[in-house]
Amino acid sequence: xxxxxxxxxxxxxxxxxERTSKETQVTITVNLDKxxxxxxxxxxxxxxxxxxxxxxxxxxSLTVRASGDIQVDAHHLIEDCGIVLGQAIYEALNGISGxxxxxxxxxxxxxxxxxxxxxxxGRRNLTWNxxxxxxxxxxxxxxxxxxxFKGLADGMRTxxxxxxxxGDNDHHVIESIFKAFSRALREAIIPIEDSGPLxxxxxxxx
Length: 206
What we know:
This protein has helices spanning about 45-60, 75-95, 145-155, 170-190, and strands at about 15-20, 25-30, 40, 60-70, 100-110, 110-120, 125-130, 160-165.
């Protein structure tokens, strides 16, 4: 088993991104190199809980202020939070050279097992292999979390693969996806000594 040790960075990787539309108002700040500060307020408590879990297990600081037209549907706010979070992570990285680039993690949660693998390569793609039942989770259609991660992949310019091996309930599946993603992200953003792109092409599509 290979152990990867985080290399020191010259400065903390921080970014704030705002998105305002007729449907939502979202402001997100990330600090990828400092864990502990998690200040998350959205109009959807279950979404807030998932974002808190992501920041906790990803060991980064996260501040979120997000409101929207949830009286119409939760779709807009969930999708836009994914887009803005992805943009904030991408901006904090200041380009995608000089990092490990790819990461994966398999997260167990009671009777649930989920794998998430990511490649921060400039190509936006989400492959989603998770299925949910007909019931709401935290007053949210669980299928909307596909839209969150699609927005995240687009905003972060990243390939994301989500694979549910099995699940004992939808809450655990969703939470395992968020936690597995955050652990995969932690691995992918580890700085490497070579400041250039980790690619045989010598460039990324960013």
